Amino acid sequence: MIFRFWFESIVGLFCIICMLLFGQAGAASFALFALLPVIMRIRKMTKPDERELQLFYKAGNLSIALVIITIYLISHFSGVAINGHAIGDNWMFLSITSILMFHGIAGLIVFRK
What we know:
A hairpin with a 2-residue loop joins strand 1 (81-82) and strand 2 (85-86). Helix 3 (50-76) packs antiparallel against helix 4. A two-stranded antiparallel ribbon has the order 1-2. The protein has four helices and two strands. It has 113 residues and is mostly helical.
């Protein structure tokens, strides 16, 4: 499970950076998330037990709180342009990738305790 959360946070951060730098073209970086099942099959990851599933859902609840804050910040700074691309034009992709990134970070925090 820890590997999954690391993968989510790294891919989410990479997607956010690509979206801010390249605008709509940066959305193609979201396709990296499709590699997760392939990598998990190669690493022969086992099915999670009950404790891991409970912590997985707890990480989901924590990540929602972080995503709400992020969506507010995206709407607040929607007029700001980075590298010629306005944040408000890419709000949906930025919200989706922030969910991915914060779910990974929240999972790492929950599993470290």
